[in-house]
Amino acid sequence: MSEVPRRPLFVVQTPMKYALALAALFILPLINSWLVYGGTISKEDLAYSAIASLILVNPLATIVVGAVFAWRHGFSLTAPWLFGIAFLPAALVVYNETALPFALVYVLAGYVGEGVGLGLKRLLAVVRERSGNSRPSR
Fold first, then answer.
1. Short-list 34, 22, 44, 31, CA closest to 102
2. Cβ atoms within 10 Å of 85's Cβ, excluding its own
3. For a disulfide at 84, which of 8, 23, 79, 107, Cβ 3.0-4.6 Å?
């Protein structure tokens, strides 16, 4: 008599892996705050670092992660929402509640990234088709 294996309670699926990678990136200003206490950077530099990560680094990273996700796995409605949700702990730990609306910005950046990834994948397929090197896509 064979038993059916039990399913685990929680499984980290593919979109969640990308969201966890972004969550690690969103915590980078916390590392910068540790450098202030070590005397490596000043408090003014810490403020500029936090603003730069909110406005430049995090959206660009979300676009890149969204493009890689869409390239490898196709379009997903839920993945960009996970990217935005991944920012919420960082918003409450590193920043303050005024940074919470940036989660929606990162959701939009995730959709832009998915569009970029799908566009690049289709462009590469057209180039391969025209050149005669048609390899089967994954």
1. 22
2. 17
3. 107
Tokens of residue 71, six digits? 């390239």
Cβ atoms of residues 95 and 50 within 8 Å: yes
Contact 71, 120 (CB under 8 A): yes
Helices 102-131 & 79-93 angle (0-180, nearest 10): 140
When computed from its CA atoms, the radius of gyration of the chain, rounded to whole angstroms, is: 19
Per-residue pLDDT of 70-126, as tens digits, reads 998 888 888 899 888 888 888 888 788 888 999 999 999 999 999 999 999 999 999
Classify residue 78 by its DSSP letter: S
List CB contacts of 51: < 8 A, sequence separation 6 or more.
none
Q: Tell me if 103 sits within 8 A of 88, measured CB to CB.
A: yes
